Amino acid sequence: MVLKTFGWSFAVTALGLVAAVLFGGWSALGIVAILSVLEISLSFDNAVVNAGILKKMNAFWQKIFLTIGILIAVFGMRLVFPVVIVAVTASLNPIEAVDLALSDKDQYQQLVTDAHPAIAAFGGMFLLMIFLDFIFEDRDIKWLSWLERPLAKLGKVDMLSVCIALIVLLISALTFAANAHQHGGAHVDKAETVLLSGIGGLITYLIVGGLSGYFEDKLEEEEEREHEAEEEAERTGKPRSAVALAGKAAFFMFLYLEVLDASFSFDGVIGAFAITNDIVLMALGLGIGAMYVRSLTVYLVRQGTLDDYVYLEHGAHYAIGALAAILLVTIQYEINEFITGSVGVILIAWSFWSSVRRNRALAAAEGKAEASDEKTEVSSGV
User: Fold this and answer.
1) Which residues are within 8 A (CB) of 113 and not within 5 positions of it... i.e. 6 or more apart?
2) Cα dihedral sign for 324, 329, 334, 338?
3) In a domain, 37, yes or no
4) Is residue 382 part of a domain?
5) How far apart are CA 272 and CA 266, in angstroms?
6) Is the dihedral of CA 271, 277, 283, 288 positive or negative?
7) Cα–Cα distance list, 160 to 38, 151, 168, 263, 339 (Å)
8) For the chain, which terminal residue's Cβ has fewer other Cβ atoms within 10 angstroms, N or C?
9) Total number of domains constituting the chain
10) Between vectors from CA 188 to CA 341 and to CA 269, what angle results, nearest 5°?
11) Residue 201, Cβ density class (10 Å: 0-12 exposed, 13-18 middle, ≥19 buried)
12) CA-based radius of gyration for the chain
């Protein structure tokens, strides 16, 4: 079962790691491995959400999602999107960007370094909004309750996450401008670039969130209509056009899933720029990770159960918050890529271990309760 579901992912992993070694040696292998782990972890909640929706779809639409959908997810968002970001910020066309990355690494690196403040501001703001919206939401399950409980109360203030994000952006832009003046003022205009790019990241987040909300509402409408049609058919005894209704509902499910997948993959793609500027290594790492996310989605659907590691979503979002902070810091200062990657992996590993400990504690408590009940029954029997 595992080999059948994850077979393609294992094969892509092997090919991707070999390609990384051939392209950039063992250091490239390490970067690709870190990117793969981060992509899987940051998109883990994506797999869980996908599985919950995908199991409602018929076999045809499931196949469409796992074939056409994976082309959009892996080749569109994880491979093409990083190239587009580099091309736009470095004023190149995508073909030139790929050609430079492969043929003239030094010139490519210089162009990306010059464009990095724009990429970092855009990505930092996008990731920061994901993190803020998560920690300001009141949730039944809390990981770091001493922190999440008061933040959830603060989250009741309307538009608080947007206000905080804009304040952080303004501070980042002004700090960058001050540092530019101290270094002779040669890059003063970069402060304006940071400000505009950051606002672009914020707008992108709001648009993606709006599209997700729109398709979610459409999906709920279609499911409600289908339910009403079923009830009507039961009352009247007349057959209904099940295929048409199911097809329309499934189509909106498919669109909703693709928008969700795009929004979830934004954090992995943009977070990758905090680890490396090399689009080849980025494409390899994110591509491997995306394959595992899809395989995990299929596994969850076929098993019929969702994952019990309840804190993993928290860990992933804290990792997103850390990547957002790192990206904004790298506007002015350089941070080692392995330190950047390790921060996210450590947070996610910590949340995973916390989930395991929670599950063990719950199992032990249930065992004690059952033992106590049996003891009570024996005593009452005597």
Assistant:
1) 277
2) negative
3) yes
4) no
5) 10
6) negative
7) 28, 11, 12, 21, 30
8) C
9) 1
10) 25
11) buried
12) 24
Measured between alpha carbons, how far is 131 from 67 in angstroms, rounded to an integer?
Answer: 31
> HEC string of the chain?
CHHHHHHHHHHHHHHHHHHHHHHHHHHHHHHHHHHHHHHHHHCHHHHHHHHHHHCCCCHHHHHHHHHHHHHHHHHHHHHHHHHHHHHHHCCCCHHHHHHHHHHCHHHHHHHHHHHHHHHHHHHHHHHHHHHHHHHCCCCCCCCCHHHHHHHHHHCCCCCHHHHHHHHHHHHHHHHHHHHHHHCCCCCCHHHHHHHHHHHHHHHHHHHHHHHHHHHHHHHHHHHHHHHHHHHHHHHHCCCCCHHHHHHHHHHHHHHHHHHHHHHHHHHHHHHHCCCCCCHHHHHHHHHHHHHHHHHHHHHHHHHCCCCCCCCHHHHHHHHHHHHHHHHHHCCCCCCCHHHHHHHHHHHHHHHHHHHHHHHHHHHHHHHHHHHHHHHHHHHHHC
Asked whether residue 151 is assigned to any structural domain, the reply reads yes
Tokens of 335: 């941070």
Which one-letter amino acid corresponds to residue 324? A
> Contact at 8 Å (CB) between 205 and 132?
no
Q: Are 126 and 267 in contact (CB under 8 A)?
A: yes
For the chain, 382 residues long, give each residue's pLDDT as a single digit of tens: 667 777 778 888 888 888 888 888 888 888 888 888 877 766 665 666 666 667 666 677 777 777 777 677 666 777 777 777 777 777 777 787 778 777 777 777 777 777 778 888 888 898 888 889 888 888 888 888 888 888 888 888 888 889 999 999 998 888 865 555 444 444 446 788 888 889 988 998 888 777 767 776 776 776 677 677 777 777 776 655 444 444 566 676 677 677 666 666 666 677 777 777 777 888 888 888 878 877 777 776 666 544 567 787 788 788 888 888 888 888 877 777 667 767 877 887 888 888 888 888 888 888 777 777 666 666 665 5
Structural domain of 295: 1-369
If phi > 0 it is left, if psi is from -120 to 50 it is alpha, else beta; for residue 107 that is alpha
- Specify if 57 maps to a domain: yes
> Could you tell me which of 325, 312, 279, 263 has the C-alpha nearest to residue 32?
279
